[in-house]
Write a structure and sequence with these properties.
By secondary structure, the protein is an alpha+beta fold. It contains 2 helices and 4 strands. Strands 1-2-3-4 form a 4-stranded antiparallel sheet, covered by helices on one side. It is globular and about 35 Å long.
Length: 88
């Protein structure tokens, strides 16, 4: 299991985004209140195809933060998950 939290501040819902990778499940959470409360979250399973998973992750992240941080988070997910390391 791999996990990382980005402290983004005012450019993200809740100020922090946390990604957790456990097998084929990728969970993304927007954390509020100093990281104690989950403002919103989603879990994406890479069962259908890698492209569908990448699209779902990118679309969810766009609702949480700016393009700059979306790219940073997607790079980390790609480096630490079973998704192919292709251009997002």
């Amino acid at each position: 299991m791999a996990q990382k939290t980005w402290n983004i501040g005012e450019r993200a819902v809740g100020g922090r985004i946390q990604a957790t990778i456990a097998g084929q499940a990728i969970t993304i959470k927007a954390l509020d209140d100093g990281g104690k409360t989950v403002a919103t979250a989603t879990t994406i399973l890479d069962e259908a195809s890698a492209q569908n998973a990448r699209t779902a992750i990118r679309e969810f992240l766009w609702t949480l933060t700016t393009d700059f941080y979306v790219d940073k988070i997607l790079d980390w997910i790609s480096d630490n998950s079973i998704l192919p390391n292709t251009d997002w």
